[in-house]
Amino acid sequence: MKRPLEDVVPVTESSHKGLNSYYRVAVDDLDAALSFLKQEGARLGTITGKDARDHLEVLYHFALSAQLHTIIVDLSYDDPNVPTITNHFVAALLYERELIGLLGINVIGIPDSRPLELPPKYSDPTPPLRRV
Amino acid sequence: MAEVNDRGFAKLKVPIGPSHPALEEPARFLFDVEGEKVVDVDYEIGYNHRSIERLCQERPFSKIVYLVERICGICSHAHPLNHVERVEDIADIEVPERAKYIRTIYAELERIHSHMLWVGIAGEEIGYHTLFMYTWREREKVMDLFEMLSGNRVMHGCNKIGGVKWNISDEQTRSALGVLGYLDTTADKITKAVLKDSSIAERGKGVGCLSKEDAIRLGAVGPNARASGVPEDTRVMCKYAAYGDFDLEPQIAKDGDVVAQALVRLAELKQSIQLTKELFVNLPEGPLQVEYDEIPPGRSVGRVEAPRGELIHYTETNGTRFFERIKIRSPTLANIPSYVPKFIGCQVADIPIIAASIDPCFSCTDRVTVIKDGRRKIVSAQELKTGRI
Amino acid sequence: MIASIVVVLVYAFVAALLLQGIRRIVVAHSQFRKGPSIFQAFYDFFKLMGKESLTPNVTSPLLFNLAPILSVASMLFAALVIPLAASASAVGAGDLILVIYLLAIPPIALILGGSASGSPYGAIGAAREVALLIAYEAPFIVAMVTVALAAGSFQLSTISSTAWITVLPLAAVAAIWTLPAAAAVQPFDIAEAETEIVSGPYVEYSGPNLALLQLGQWLKTFLYASLIVVVFFGTAIYHFGTGINLIIEFAIIALLVSAFIAFWQATTGRTRVTRVLRYYWTIPTLLAVTDLILYVADVRYMHFLFGWAGL
Amino acid sequence: MASGFIKDLIRSFTVGIVGKTATVRSASEVEVPAAYRGTPIIDPEKCILCGRCGKVCPAGAIALRTSASEKSVRIFVGHCVFCSECAMICPVSAITMSKVWDTVVTDRLSRDTMSEREIKRRPRPKEKQASSSVARESREPTPQAEDSAQIPPTDNKSGPTNE
Fold first, then answer.
1. B106-115, pLDDT tens digit by residue?
2. Cα angle, residue C207 at apex, residues C206 and C210 outer, rounded to 5°
3. Which of D 78-97 lie inside 8 A of B, CB atoms?
4. Which end of chain A is more exposed for a tag (fewer CB within 10 A), N or C?
């Protein structure tokens, strides 16, 4: 990476290990971080949703040549909203639909908000991957 | 029966799937067809759903390798290899050299039998049954080789945190080299059959084209992307397992149609056979496993080149007996968006071959969580096992 | 009279199903397989006859159930008209134009059944069957007209008295070339392409209806081949008693169908419906038309080349 | 190749007429490679009932049955995935992976394990029809929990390979 992400976007905590590097970013700086990564020519790997017992976490994994950069965003249980990144990375649509379906995170501005991989008549309020 | 579009063709909605002779695994495509031309496509996945990621959080450590191995029948070595490497990355375990080589041998043999399987299925999709019969007959040699090495054709169970379980004796190496020599000539025959055959060229040329920009924009991976000219191969980039000792270069083609897909896969088949021979020849001596005590809390993301493309595993441990989170992004999930530009504008006759062109493996794709028919209940591993959802 | 009719009908039924068995075994062997037993067609047919036949409620039931009966009836009638093993046909008079029309009825029945079945697969299958029918009928009819012109009459008995392959080889090649399309075999089974449209018009049929529809198709393959053999090989093969003629003729047909069609089926993938039209209207039709023109222009090239004047 | 092809072709035609099946090698003549992992067999004399195999089994197929008279470890073949973890973990190596691949059980939840009941191999292809029906009934007695099971000796004499 030509310029480290830290001086572009306020990163609360970052750690590096081997080929991986993780950056914890606030929700509203997400967009700036993503457009920076887009300029660097990173390719979206996948988006992981996680229920970390007291709050929700969304991890965006990007592949940049051999390196793997992960941007982590913390969401509280009561407002699980995250902006869509399909404007930068079109491929994120499927991964974000997975977030909607399996973790109940609603993605703002997603073009197609049908949950992925859930049977149509799935009526249960709490999404499957949440730790009850 | 159906309303007619401006040029007088009947507008139809053709459903393909979830169970359909063209699809080897359940997925559902809904095509808006005018006459024979496809105008729009919508896809649904999730029919082969076994809540594997939820299970990964509810099963103790030692059982996860076997669970991850059963995600997909064809790439049943890529998933555990990636999982084991992630845990070793977290716990900083240094795997002995011989174990790395044996893991790479299994990975490459799996690529050989997966690509031969695809060539057969592609032949079957366009109705060329002889190619199917012939390639799958030769593929049996690789499956027998697997059975000789690891005791089982598909679920080899050779991966273990810290190394490999099954050793490879000299006598096994000799017979393996014999089989690989035979496979070399078969690969040439199949390549010649696919290239020279007019009916394959006629059904494959210019069908389901994926441009390089679309491939990059939609995030296509593996042979599907390389057929459009995207030179990305995780084995070359990440040098995991024993790939560091060999200089590979990605096999790419230009025009991204079905014939290009076949070209890339057949070239990779040849490359894998050659690489496996080298692996068998300079297999280093040494122990198979290394002991490890405690897995510290931590996280790791990593990529492995499964036969269908780049497979990403995200593993997080919290120091207890269970994993905090395991996320598996299979190559097919990344390749599904590239269906849209391929399908729009094709003919009904081309649907099966295009559906097969990305070599979909939906059992990999549907490993995330859902509970049966809408009712969500806390399902313990025990209940899951007897219930067999 | 009645006895010979019954004998011919039974012979046509048994021969048609045996032909399918032979074809499947030869194709299986070209794919390193053993293939089913030779009576597989019989097993399929009688198993299906025992099953229940359903009619989807969205269709016009009359048309849906009429199609199988139509195709089998026309084929049995054609079996009586074509002189199968003797110089004259079972019912005495045998007219070439009538036989050509009868041979076109099973595809039409398939089209009716497919479009009446109400499923999108049936509709697309029926549309493809129309294209296939038009495609391969053109060269076949031109070839047959050339032979009728040369024989001076449409009566099958007079036509089959001389072996026309020695006089009009190009027309013979054109007719034989259309055989795979008539048998709806691999490169041309676009109407019931199981990976694309899940067996097209057959998709909604079950039980006896399906059995009869398939029987119609199998009989058509057999009778199509026997018409070509009768017209182009003619009486050259009728010097012995009826029994031996039967065996010789069936042997030629079996060889023709199994070797020729099996070769096509084993070595090619399925073509697309757009190509079928272009494919059959170029080379095969050209061959038949040149033979027609040559004959009309009194150019007896076979006589000139080999001194043959028709056996 | 051509002569073999024609001979094979003729044979297929006659096979259909004569009615013999076309299978060349019957299922019981299949040789499995040395590394093959078949059904795990427990040798009760060696077993010290430590229960480690039950803990390590990924499919949870091994159950420690403590009944009134005697405790025994049983492998529920319906769930076993033949990974041989139990064979590797067993301190006294009481569990061995046999070469039996024919692990059909009549009902899904039968508590029966291959090590309990007498394993009857499919008879030789020669007298195939006659005795196979006999073998089928006697092979599947529903054993009561306490009946004294006659365990075959560990080197599973009836495995297909060491015939």
1. 999 999 999 9
2. 60
3. 79, 81-85, 88
4. C
